[in-house]
Amino acid sequence: MSLEEIILQIQECKKCRLWQTSTHGVPGEGLANAKVMFVGQNPGSEEDKTGRPFVGRAGKFLTKTIAEFGITREEVYITNIVKHTSPENRKPYPDEVSACLPYLIQQIAIIKPKIVVLLGASAKKTPRVENVKYFEIVHPSAAMRFTKMREKFQTQIAELAKQIK
Ligand code: SF4
Question: Cα of 40 to ligand 1 centre, how many Å?
Answer without folding.
Answer: 15
